[in-house]
Amino acid sequence: MIDFTKEFEYRTSRSGGPGGQNVNKVSSKVELRFHVNNSELLTEEEKALLYQKLGNYITQEGYLQVICQTERSQLANKENCIQKFYALLGKAFTKQKARKPTKPSKASQHERIAAKKKLSDKKANRGRVRNSDY
Length: 134
Fold this sequence. Notes:
This protein is α+β, with helices and mostly antiparallel strands and 134 residues long. The protein has a domain at 5-93: 2-Layer Sandwich (Double Stranded RNA Binding Domain), CATH 3.30.160. It has helices spanning 21-25, 44-53, 74-93, 106-124, and strands at 8-13, 29-35, 63-68. The protein is elongated and about 90 Å long. The termini are far apart. Residues 96-134 are annotated as: Disordered. Keywords: Hydrolase.
């Protein structure tokens, strides 16, 4: 895997949520920013693929953003951001297998028809019972 750490930018801020006084004092939230267009390590095809697959994570300025604030320490959140970043890249660059269309098996066809028959019988028996004695 390529090492992108030289192209990362980090921003820290105070994180929200539980944590008592620690939340109010310590900037533990980490935002990892990676400028996709200015990257020297990615090819043009890879950049286009990132824009296509990870468009929700990329800002209008062209930064791929990953935010972590689950841990109480800034270092742990920073490591989580880096792991998330590489996981996103791995997910974006894996090629999806082409789907081979298949037909349903005989057993599954029989199961489906049996289930439909059972439901049909149940609904047919819901009507009012007519008694000819009256």
